[in-house]
Specification:
The protein is an alpha/beta fold. 29% of the residues lie in helices and 24% in strands. It has eleven helices and 20 strands. Strands 1-14-16-15 form a four-stranded mixed sheet, with helices on one face. The chain is elongated.
């Protein structure tokens, strides 16, 4: 799809079923490399990155059958331990095969990642952790190479809570000899989902969702079935769109507990939010109000919802301050919103947003 044409000015109302979380699906798919047997993954979102990960697994030697939101994967043998540049350049999450490959097959060669451009998102924390587990790491000609006969457990302190770094090291540690402890680990629900899938397959992991994860290495993993958790960012995006249009929207098949920070800010902005076991309903009894937002690692306000809320605050009464603490240079949307009439001022890692009554369409 080259372009999306949007005719605005309509109130959104109705139900929307939330897809599976891409940021959970990708590490879960990568983790199938860790063991033999059949893995059946359901509730996969129908997005390009999921298809790309399936292609990468196929190149490595996996048997992949993908239909709709379901994939059947088997990795009983390997044809290659190299994740080529042509695929990795399109999706930063390709680096997630690094830990599983070196843990099970003793070698991995992965092109330095591409994917979305959000400032500097280095993989040095992944590499330092794998080196501490005993891998021999080198970088040449744009490729990371990792080798190890068998990884060994170690205590690893992450300088910053990195989601993909935590996932990569947790996967690698499942087959390491001895016990690995990840300190200052990321706590995102997607990490918990990955850990639950690995445990189903025979891994020994405790503490996922806290800042200390303990992994007791095992010799091998078997197959398993898993249903990917709902996408909290997709749910938050639909709810924000409902608020902007003074709408009435029910996000179904979601987990409200994963959305607490987002729901709190929507309430502060004037929304009436009602939570059920697996759904959230948002209505707007009054006008949007400004509110301040500071992005933080989970359970704080997610950086992936920052742009959506800036759009919302552009139409809210008053002035709001949005502070981005997770990624640098994540304000690419600001110029586009300004073209639509938004009043936004950039001050370092902060945005000062003064609401307008209406924005206008722009190409």
């Amino acid at each position: 799809m080259d372009e999306i044409l949007i005719r605005g000015g309509k109130r959104l109302a109705g139900d929307v079923r939330i897809s599976g979380a891409k940021n959970s699906a990708l590490p879960i798919l990568a983790s199938t490399i860790l063991g033999g047997g059949e893995c059946v993954i359901t509730n996969l979102p129908r997005v390009v990155d999921v298809l790309t990960m399936g292609k990468l697994l196929g190149i490595l030697g996996a048997t992949v059958s993908h239909e709709g939101n379901r994939a059947v994967i088997q990795v009983d043998a390997i044809e290659s331990t190299e994740a080529p540049y042509d695929l990795v350049k399109t999706m930063r999450a390709s680096v997630l095969v690094l830990g599983p490959l070196v843990a099970r097959w003793g070698e991995a060669k992965v092109s330095l990642p591409g994917g979305c451009a959000i400032g500097s998102r280095p993989v040095n924390l992944h590499l330092a952790g794998l080196a501490k587990l005993g891998a021999d790491i080198s970088i040449e000609h744009g490729y990371i190479t990792a080798r190890a006969k068998r990884l060994r457990g170690e205590r690893i302190y992450c300088d910053t809570p990195t989601v993909t770094g935590t996932e990569n090291l947790m996967m690698a540690a499942t087959l390491a000899e001895g016990v690995t402890t990840l300190e200052n680990a990321a706590k995102e629900p997607e990490i918990v989902d990955l850990a639950e899938f690995l445990v189903k397959r025979g891994a020994r992991i405790r503490g996922a969702g806290t800042d200390e994860i303990v992994i007791e290495g095992v010799r091998e993993l078997h197959g398993g079935n898993h249903d990917v958790i709902p996408d909290r960012i997709e749910a938050g995006t639909y709810l924000a769109a409902a608020a902007v249009t003074q709408g009435d929207v029910i996000a179904t098949h979601c987990r409200p507990g994963h959305l607490e920070a987002v729901l709190m800010k929507l309430r502060e902005a004037g929304a009436d939010v009602q939570e059920g076991n697996d759904h959230v309903r948002l209505t707007m009894p009054d006008k949007l109000r400004g509110t301040d937002i500071r992005t933080l690692p989970f359970p704080g306000f997610p950086t992936d919802m920052q742009a959506q809320m800036v759009a919302l605050l552009s139409l809210a009464e008053g002035t709001s301050v949005v502070t981005e603490t997770v990624f640098e240079s994540r304000f690419m949307h600001v110029e586009e919103l300004r073209r639509m009439g938004a009043n936004i001022r950039v001050e370092g890692n902060r945005l000062v947003v003064t609401g307008r009554k209406q924005l206008t369409g722009a190409p």
